[in-house]
Amino acid sequence: MAILAALLLIASAVSVVAESEASHIRSVLYVGGHYEGDEMVGQMYVERLRPVNGVLQQAPVVLIHGMGMTGSNFLNKPDGGRGWASNFLDQGYEVYIVDQTNRGRSASHLGGQTPISFNASMVQDRFTATQRHRHWPQAGNHSQWPGSGLRGDPIFDALYAAMVPSDPDPIRTQTSMQRAGTALLDIIGVPAIILGHSQGGLFPILMADARPHLVRALILLEPSGPPFRDGFTGGFHPWGLSDVPLAYEPVVTDPLRDLLQNVVPAPDDYHTSCILQAEEPAPRQLVHLIDKPILVMTSEASYHAPYDYCTVAFLRQAGCRAVEHVELAAEGIRGNGHMMFLERNSRDIQLLVHDWIRVLRPYLQDRMLGSSDRYRQSPRASTVCQAPAAKDPW
């Protein structure tokens, strides 16, 4: 049966037409590992891709995939089209792609726990063919997934073949990803733009919280949420956005006691209610994120459409002054689901991300040209701190 399944997969792949990737120089590193006894745990696989014609953008981009996925998400699309890594390379960015700790090419150490796997039916209902069952109000708007989105379709099968089991322990995952992510930022040595998707959308926040001077901006593609309760797993996030500590002011020592909650009713039938901090006493502030440019992006038909606004509201309430919520439908980009960067119009969405980054770029270019005095006077100068360049291990 295994041989037959493999032959069927090979046969189905024939109809997926591959498009060439952007030319690049590739190197590989593992970061963040530490020894427990005679074993190394917590290490993270990283690919560094550099445009062959040289880097044109000062801030590198770090790409972090979501649950059940690996960094291959950003290399090629299941229909054979170019992934976002190639788009960023064409625009002159240096690109870093990771496999989350305990996932893919990052060695797995789960302490005997059984990893989480997604079955094909769940992937169809949540990601690729949401219009069939309409489990949330916006699901029927999904039209951008290439192919039928069903098991047996070659494009669906290409996606599902690339999916891998995930660590079932959110605290272990968040702790190890923060550790490995900050190790990567230390190696990069200059402020980076961190992009995370879904479950991976939390890690830019954890990395920026630990290394604020090494994070230029955060791009959160439908990050895990909403605050305090997870809309996908149903789990409780005691620190609001996470299961592990975040730096608040006043200091939070016991989140169950210090982060007082308030339920805000849903504004309409298309959205959920939100759990935010109570307004009295004054909401605790995320002190390391206050000045960071943060983009939260939500597609029209995703299961995140009913509640991503809660994540945005939580960030703003916690003092994050530079949060922007881009809802793709409002930008004229219609029909996308949760896997927006793998869908037919993924290039249009990536260009929207690039345009958002370009708003930050003039100050970066001033610095590249040596205009340090003018840069220091810019209103965004406080959000970028030049770290000493680390020795390049690549």
Automatic annotation (TrEMBL):
<feature type="signal peptide">
    <location>
        <begin position="1"/>
        <end position="18"/>
    </location>
</feature>
<feature type="domain" description="AB hydrolase-1">
    <location>
        <begin position="60"/>
        <end position="241"/>
    </location>
</feature>
<keyword id="KW-0732">Signal</keyword>
<protein>
    <recommendedName>
        <fullName>AB hydrolase-1 domain-containing protein</fullName>
    </recommendedName>
</protein>
<dbReference type="InterPro" id="IPR000073">
    <property type="entry name" value="AB_hydrolase_1"/>
</dbReference>
<dbReference type="Pfam" id="PF00561">
    <property type="entry name" value="Abhydrolase_1"/>
</dbReference>
<dbReference type="InterPro" id="IPR050228">
    <property type="entry name" value="Carboxylesterase_BioH"/>
</dbReference>
<dbReference type="InterPro" id="IPR029058">
    <property type="entry name" value="AB_hydrolase_fold"/>
</dbReference>
